[in-house]
Specification:
CATH architecture: Clam
Shape: globular
Radius of gyration: 17 Å
Structural class: mainly beta
Distance between the termini: 27 Å
Strand order of the largest sheet: 3-2-1-13-12-11-10-9-8-7
Strand content: 35-45%
CATH superfamily: Lipoprotein localisation LolA/LolB/LppX
Largest sheet: 10 strands, antiparallel
CATH topology: outer membrane lipoprotein receptor (LolB), chain A
CATH class: Mainly Beta
Number of helices: 4
Length: about 240
């Protein structure tokens, strides 16, 4: 494994500890301009998320005021009511975003897909760096806000559903995540700069609880507005 990738994984608690668990649950508060832009303002403002660790799946509950429940997997998304009756199913969900731009509205299953890939990626990072087929490469250091951050280019295999094939992690001298860049392929390859903080330790692993996502400019610098997405996590539990 790339030495920087190993440093980042170790800083977050190490693979041995992470592999003791198969799922993670947390309380989630979200804001930002994206949800209204996509036609779903308020639907995921406050909810609970559960993700698989390693195995790719995620679930949000409640999904909207009716108390719906989502289930995301790379090949299928389903939405159920509070009595576990299937309301909608979307197979091959990635292909449904063909031709989308940042402004294209999403259906509910498409929203569930995006929320699923996002939270699964975030909550499995940085341990995804050790997943089969993931390739890492250290880049030149980056200067921001008077700090020097190391950077790691991450290339994902096609089997992993995530924001984009190529992403970049920025870490501090201790190996903790500070920023995470990607282009949202299902929204017209919209470039994002995702800032990370508020670390807590849970059951031997370190997780950030504060995430703020802004547009990224061609030179790699972020814009100060608009706030595209805000994410605040609490009550994290591993099982």
């Amino acid at each position: 494994m790339n030495s920087l990738a190993q440093k980042i994984i170790d800083a977050h608690g190490g693979l041995e500890t992470w592999r003791r668990y198969s799922s993670l649950a947390a309380h989630l508060k979200q804001g930002g301009a994206l949800w209204r832009l996509k036609g779903h303002g308020g639907k995921l403002d406050e909810t609970n998320v559960t993700v698989g660790l390693g195995e790719e799946w995620a679930s949000h509950f409640p999904f909207g005021p009716e108390g719906k429940v989502t289930r995301f997997e790379p090949g299928v998304v389903s939405i159920r009511d509070s009595q576990d009756n299937v309301l909608e199913t979307l197979t091959d969900p990635r292909s449904s975003f063909a031709g989308h731009t940042l402004e294209t509205p999403w259906t509910e299953p498409q929203l569930a897909y995006f929320a699923g890939i996002a939270m699964w990626t975030y909550l499995n990072m940085p341990f995804l760096l050790a997943a089969p087929g993931v390739v890492t490469e250290q880049l030149e250091d980056w200067q921001e806000n008077g700090e020097t951050w190391q950077r790691l280019k991450v290339t994902f295999p096609s089997e992993i559903a995530t924001h984009s094939t190529v992403q970049t992690l920025y870490v501090d001298k201790n190996g903790l995540l500070k920023r995470h860049d990607y282009d949202v392929e299902i929204a017209g390859n919209t470039p994002g700069a995702h800032y990370i903080g508020g670390y807590v330790e849970v059951q031997g692993l370190k997780f950030p609880t504060e995430r703020r996502i802004f547009p990224r400019q061609p030179d790699g610098n972020s814009m100060s507005e608009p706030l595209v997405v805000s994410i605040d996590l609490s009550d994290i539990k591993l099982s």
